[in-house]
Design a protein that fits this description.
This protein is of the alpha+beta class. About 25% of the residues lie in helices and about 25% in strands. This is ABC transporter substrate-binding protein.
């Protein structure tokens, strides 16, 4: 067989958000038995995070990829990128010229998987619930521009916004805006555990042991009405302890497809081996990695320390040693392929330079070497994360200006500790909620940001973010977006490192792999089917 490599268009954000959109409905046929998908994402219900699959709480790529199959949203990001299109809605659009009033009409005959009808009141309940619960994951901030939600009859929903927000249709496509049944999801508390019901293309069954989800069973929902064509009858998603175990299962035929997180070595091997019966599909991605700072912590409270780190880190060397051609250096929070991107960090710091870093520390009267611990998660962003932090440690220590150690922690411990401000410096990744520059800036810099960061810049929050959201033509928002990125490069509340491509590896009788992931790393299981081995 011939190795297949597919590259889809990667320029994001050139089109204005939809002003008015109406959609049809589609369905597919069952093309065989369950397709088994492997992942290294781990799903745990713990004391710190007892409700991992509640749409009002979930805020990471793994849990969202479960919710997107099961909990319907009014809008959805379409196959092949572009503007959001109606999903649970029949039509949606701004009804004013100022992008402050947004109305949707639900499809007729929508049902939850338990048979209850889906009404406009359920949409209002779901949105208001997420906003009022204000879960500590910070996901509710995606709905922060909503002032009130109004219903008219059983099918009309009207969102009155506090300020203009041209990105609002995208936000209605995210799981926090998912429609839940009030009989199943209490108003004043999160729904603990792994119970999950919605009106999406699949119903859901969880195989749980000791508080951890081992396998998720997705069965096509016969009552589903929406815009998606479902090309299979059943998907089983199996969680593996690491990439090696997942890869072995694919080679043995125990699974049909694997996604995140494959190791760089696995990807290189699959790229060069054309006779394995496995196809590797490469797609542009918008995943980024960065260092976050607790800007109130004594070790990094001085801007000069953070600037010195930005002056020393060698992104090209980091990418070359760890990820090779699978990633590219990143000089802003906004990826290079997204409209509004600016190379702000390169513009300010240029190439790595220890002399300039020393000068920054000397001018601020910082005693060297500065002692720091870089924290990273051992099991969330792939097996190369440890090596990545070893390279970062060595770069900083070789300057003589820093004395850095590294410490790895499992995600279910790492994330709560990070949100509580227990780490001075920590490594994080970001898979965008939607493909717009706003979503690479506001979640880190606005009030109620996802990191729980104490960093607060009034110009960004009160002027530049609102300015950028007023522009329906995202090219017209570039000036405000560039100003935000320049401030970030100067203050360094976060330090961007690299942006990555994304890959799917599947047995060669699996169809639809070219659309199994979109640029936001959304897993689109409905695209998969079973064909003929080639």
């Amino acid at each position: 067989m011939n190795r297949k490599t597919l590259v889809l268009p990667a320029v994001i954000g050139l089109l204005a958000p939809v002003l008015a959109a109406c959609g049809g409905s589609d369905s597919g046929s069952d093309n065989g038995g369950a397709i088994v998908v492997g992942t290294t994402d781990r799903f745990t219900a713990s004391k710190d995070a007892p409700a991992p699959l509640d749409p009002a709480y979930a805020y990471d790529v793994g849990t969202w990829n479960i919710l997107r199959q099961t909990v319907q949203t009014l809008m959805i990001q379409p196959r092949g990128e572009g503007e959001p299109v109606p999903e649970a809605a029949e039509c949606c659009g701004f009804t004013d010229t100022g992008n402050e009033r947004y109305a949707c009409t639900l499809r007729d005959g929508l049902k939850f998987a338990n048979g209850d009808p889906v009404t406009a009141a359920d949409v209002k309940y779901s949105i208001d619930r997420a906003r009022s619960l204000k879960a500590d994951s910070g996901v509710f901030a995606l709905l922060s521009t909503i002032d009130t939600v109004e219903t008219q009859g059983d099918r009309e929903v009207i969102f009155h916004l506090k300020t203009a927000d041209a990105t609002f249709p995208y936000k209605l496509s995210t799981p926090v805006a998912g429609i839940v049944d009030p009989d199943e999801y209490p108003k004043n508390k999160l729904r603990d555990g792994f119970d999950l019901q919605g009106s999406g293309p699949y119903t859901f069954k969880a195989d749980v042991e000791d508080g951890e989800l081992n396998k998720a069973e997705f069965t096509r929902n016969p009552d589903y009405k929406g815009s998606l064509k479902v090309n299979n009858g059943k998907i089983d998603m199996v969680s593996f302890k690491d990439a090696d175990a997942m890869g072995e299962a694919l080679n043995k035929g125990d699974i049909d497809l694997m996604t995140r997180a494959m190791s760089p070595d696995q990807i290189r091997k699959l790229s060069g081996d054309a006779d394995t019966g496995v196809d590797l599909v490469e797609m542009p991605g918008l995943e980024i990695r960065y260092l976050g700072f607790n800007t109130d912590a004594p070790t990094v409270k001085s801007k000069a320390v953070r600037q010195a780190m930005a002056q020393i880190v060698n992104r090209s060397e980091l990418v070359s040693k760890v990820y090779g051609s699978q990633a590219e250096p990143l000089y802003s929070l906004v990826p290079a392929s997204v409209t509004g991107h600016s190379n702000s960090f390169f513009n300010k710091y240029g190439d790595p330079n220890v002399t300039k870093a020393r000068s920054l520390l000397n001018q601020a009267n910082i005693t060297t070497p500065v002692k720091l611990t870089l924290h990273y998660t051992t099991d969330h962003y792939g097996p190369a994360t440890k090596k990545e932090f070893e390279v970062l440690r060595d770069q900083l220590n070789s300057s003589g200006l820093f004395e850095v150690g590294i410490k790895g922690t499992p995600w279910d411990t790492f994330r709560p500790a990070e949100k509580k401000g227990e780490y001075d410096v920590y490594g994080m990744g970001w898979f965008p909620d939607f493909p717009d520059a706003d979503n690479f800036l506001a979640p880190f810099l606005d009030k109620d940001n996802t990191l729980g960061s104490p960093y607060d810049n009034n110009q960004i929050r009160n002027t530049l973010i609102p300015e950028s959201r007023r522009e329906a033509d995202r090219l017209s928002a570039a000036s405000s977006l560039t100003d935000i990125q320049d401030i970030v490069a100067s203050d360094v509340p976060v330090l961007p490192l690299w942006q990555g491509k994304q890959y799917v590896a599947a047995r060669d009788d699996i169809t639809g792999t070219a659309y199994a992931l979109n640029s936001s790393s959304t897993l689109q299981l409905w695209e998969l089917g079973r064909g003929v081995s080639g």
